[in-house]
Design brief:
Number of helices: 14
Bound molecules: protoporphyrin IX containing FE
Low-confidence stretches: 19-32
CATH superfamily of the largest domain: Globins
Radius of gyration: 26 Å
CATH architecture of the largest domain: Orthogonal Bundle
Structural class: mainly alpha
Mean pLDDT: 89
Number of strands: 0
Helix content: 55-70%
Strand content: under 5%
């Protein structure tokens, strides 16, 4: 009996290996590849080879550009190659291609670098020139241009920062604490977390303009401009003369539209 049971076990194991495992592997393979829409920007701009060439080209130019090369000082070959690959995957993914995103959130990696509007537009220009060099048609270049511009609030450092709770009497303690937590998270680029704290603060003590201002600044960073405008307006209404609110350029950019 014993040798027979041994053979049965071996036979059963072989069946699992030859019949079941390959179908599981195929199933996994199917899941691992995202299907690509023939009308996607990814396909229309020329697919992965074009993206790869564009990223290599614009990064090489950016690293050599004396106006912005200081941002990339001290990056070794391996770090630079990783930066290339992360940017390739990001462009491939956001245009509808089959890649996975490898990078950390843009608002986290760029926080504290002190990137200005001018630096941002220099990079965008390099990308646009590289797209033309690799024959990406006008319409597709325009689409990419719009996508790039929408990333600006995540990348550019602003001199305007979230505001501490005002010193006046009668403010609710919980809202004050939530506002402080929001500021700590905002300062390290954790905008989703920051937003949830500012939301609690502005709901709990809705007459404090600073809380609405902070919520609006965070929404702006997250690209939610419509909601940001509502909270900038609430901040303006409840400013109590705080010129950091009434004189804010970001606020005016939203409320004067
Ligand atoms: C046009 C929009 C931009 C996009 C799509 C972009 C994309 C990226 C990506 C995907 C990474 C890698 C993130 C990671 O390590 O996980 C990165 C890192 C970096 N980017 Fe950008 N970037 C942009 C604009 C800029 C600008 C304007 C500058 C400066 C002039 C800049 C400087 C850097 C630097 C220095 C790093 C490395 C940060 C670090 O690892 O500490 N980027 N960027």
């Amino acid at each position: 009996m014993k040798p027979n049971m041994g053979w049965n076990t071996i036979l059963a194991t072989m069946m699992v290996l030859f019949l079941v495992v390959p179908s599981l592997v195929n199933g996994e393979e199917k899941k691992a590849y995202k299907s690509v829409d023939e009308n996607s920007l990814y396909v229309r701009m020329g697919g992965y080879d074009v993206i790869s060439n564009v990223i290599d080209d614009f990064l090489t130019k950016s690293w050599a550009d004396p106006r912005i090369s200081h941002f990339f000082l001290g990056m070794g070959t391996d770090t630079r190659n990783r930066l290339r690959q992360k940017n390739k995957n990001l462009m491939c993914f956001t245009t509808g291609g089959p890649c996975r995103v490898l990078n950390r959130p843009l608002e986290v990696v760029h926080v504290g670098l002190g990137i200005t509007d001018t630096d941002f537009y220099i990079i965008v220009d390099h990308i646009m020139v590289s797209l033309k060099k690799y024959d990406v048609p006008d319409k597709e270049r325009e689409e990419l241009h719009a996508k790039l511009l929408s990333l600006k609030p995540k990348i550019v450092n602003t001199t305007e920062v979230p505001l501490a709770a005002p010193k006046r009497e009668g403010l609710k303690e919980m809202a004050r604490m939530e506002n402080a937590l929001g500021i700590s998270n905002f300062n390290i680029g954790r905008f989703d977390e920051a937003l949830s704290h500012f939301q609690i603060a502005s709901k709990d003590d809705s007459g404090v303009g600073e809380y609405h201002f902070n919520e609006a600044m965070t929404l702006d960073k997250l690209g939610k401009h419509g909601l940001a405008t509502n909270h900038f307006k609430a901040a303006q209404k409840n400013a109590h003369g705080n010129i950091k609110i009434t004189g804010s350029k970001i606020l005016k950019g939203h409320t004067s539209k």
